[in-house]
C-alpha cells in the first residue's frame, strides 16, 4: 500500500491550511472594510448635519439682527410709504420691513422669503422718492430649508395681523438633511422684539 505524502510548501504548511488561513484573513479584511465604510458614512453624516445647522443658525442670527432694527429710519422713508409702518408685509412665510441697517443714513427695504428650499433676502435702498434698484437685489441666505415662518405679536404678546401693532416677531426655520439616504430635520426659532416700532 502506497501512502501519499501531503503537499508541502516551503514554509511547511499544507495546501488546506493555506486555504483556511486565506479565508480567515479575507473575512477579517471584509469586517475591517465594513467597519471603515460605516464609520466614514457616520462621519460624513455628522459633518453635513453640523454644517447644515451652523448655516441655519447664521441665517437666523442675521435675520433676527436685521428685523430687530425695523423702523430705524433716519431719512424718513416710512412716511412716504402707503402703509406708513416699519413692517411693510407680514405674512406667515414672508416679511418686508424698512430700516437703516448699516448706519449710512439710507433706509433699506428688506424682504425675507422662502423660494424652493432657499431663504432669499431682497434689498433695495431709498433714494428720496423710490426704492432702488428696482427690482431689489436678491441673495441666498440659507439652503436646505423646508419651512420659514413668522408669527407676529402686539405689545401685550397677543398674535396680530395689524402692521402698526407688531412689536414682537417669532422667526422659525426648519432645515432638512437628506444626505446619505437620511432625512433629519432641525427646527430653529427665535423671538425678536422690535427696537423702533
Give an account of the 3D structure.
The protein has one helix and eight strands; from the N terminus they run H-E-E-E-E-E-E-E-E. A hairpin with a 3-residue loop joins strand 1 (87-90) and strand 2 (94-99). Helix content is 27%, strand content 35%. The relative contact order is 0.15. It has one helix at 15-68, and strands spanning 87-90, 94-99, 108-115, 118-126, 131-143, 145-153, 168-177, 184-193. It is elongated, with a radius of gyration of 31 Å. Strands 1-2-3-4-5 form a five-stranded antiparallel β-sheet. By secondary structure, the chain is of the alpha+beta class. It has one domain.
Fold topology:
Elements lengths: L14 H54 L18 E4 L3 E6 L8 E8 L2 E9 L4 E13 L1 E9 L14 E10 L6 E10 L4
Antiparallel strand pairs: 1-2, 2-3, 3-4, 4-5, 6-7, 7-8
